[in-house]
Amino acid sequence: MSDQRDPAPYDALLLLSFGGPEGPDDVVPFLENVTRGRGIPQERLKEVGKHYFQFGGVSPINDQCRALLAALRADFASAGLDLPVHWGNRNWTPYLTDTLREMVLDGRRRIAVLTTSAYASYSGCRQYRENLADALATLEAEGLPLPRIDKLRHYFNHPGFVEPMVDGVLKSLDELDPAVRADAHIAFTTHSIPDSAADTSGPVEDHGDGGAYVEQHLDVARLIADAVRDRTGVEHPWRLVYQSRSGAPHIPWLEPDICDHLEELHKAGVPAVVMAPIGFVSDHMEVLYDLDTEATAKAAELGLPVRRSATVGDDPRFAAAVRDLLLERAAVERGTVAERCALGALGPSHDLCPIGCCPARNERPAAAGADSPYA
Ligand SMILES: CC1=C(CCC(=O)O)c2cc3nc(cc4[nH]c(cc5[nH]c(cc1n2)c(C)c5CCC(=O)O)c(CCC(=O)O)c4C)C(CCC(=O)O)=C3C
Ligand SMILES: [Fe+2]
Questions:
Q1: Which residues span the domain enclosing 196?
Q2: CA of 191 to the centre of ligand 2 (A)
Q3: Which of 120, 220, 256, 296 would be a feasible disulfide site paired with 212, CB 3.0-4.6 Å?
Q4: Dist. CA 245–CA 226, nearest whole Å
Q5: Does 59 appear as a known binding residue?
Q6: How high is the pLDDT of residue 4?
Q7: Which residues make up the binding site for Fe-coproporphyrin III (predicted)?
Q8: Is 119 labelled as part of a ligand binding site?
């Protein structure tokens, strides 16, 4: 029998996120951190800097992480789970390395990590594993004991991630004028990534057109569209589209872009659209600018009514899902049979990223996977 209430062997959970600037002076150094060695054109950086400055140089992502931390702590406490929860970022304070150092000095030796990215891809998975390897290398150089780190599996198809988004889409549909509601389309959006990164996302056996990245998003989109149909009796046409493209224009990235899609739908006579950002865990800058500002302005220009549905953020169901994932993995690590909760056609994702999963353009050490140089 598995006891999915026992967190052993874990002695801490680490929430690992992207980070964002907290004032105008932070914007440029933040963008330098994000884009170091990643070949982003200068014009694109200037443009993205403007998005942040338009919001006072403050990304909402850090407060959203603080809210998720609070939700996780509240959920753990109410479930009688006595496990500290820490937070570190890839690109801004609190930096991952500093958090990990504190955790180790506090005596933590076996850490479960939750990233604020639900899907497979280099940017959403391996890059975080590289960040963990970098942080471990720093601690090693400082002569500190190294903790063992496990990354919790992809949670795109966990009901605690999907169900809040179903509610969000229902709410957005509700906000539309009843005259257009039944014919509204749903545009599920996610971060565009280079075609080459999409095609190689996920374990090697899943590599194919669009790879695990596109396949996983399509599964979530279908789940939400089906749930909405079951709840409303209306079959809303939908499509998976993309946003926040960067990189050089001659390199192919996933398309269509949300703005082009809105234009197409308008031309086809579609009377309203719900934009559902299923690729993101919180309403951070990519949502606030690319959807709420840019795409919404595009829709207004077209005279197309749109609503943007909420991401999961600090929804208590999501916090409970994190607890479930942690206890599931703890059971696995103890060598017992774990119950693995997942909706949709793909089933629960792997615990340990296999060799060749979401490869980097330039191979670097990555922790918490089969190719980790750390135990
Ligand atoms: C898949 C994916 C996610 C979702 C998974 C996850 O959440 O991890 C994500 C999230 C985020 N991306 C974010 C911000 C940025 N991403 C950039 C650049 C890039 N993202 C990429 C992919 C992704 N990004 C890629 C392939 C690039 C090109 C450069 C490279 O290959 O690395 C740039 C550089 C400028 C630009 O070109 O846009 C910025 C500023 C923020 C913070 C928002 C805030 O501050 O509120 C968040 C949560
Ligand atoms: Fe990004």
A1: 159-308
A2: 7
A3: 120
A4: 28
A5: yes
A6: 64
A7: 59, 128
A8: no
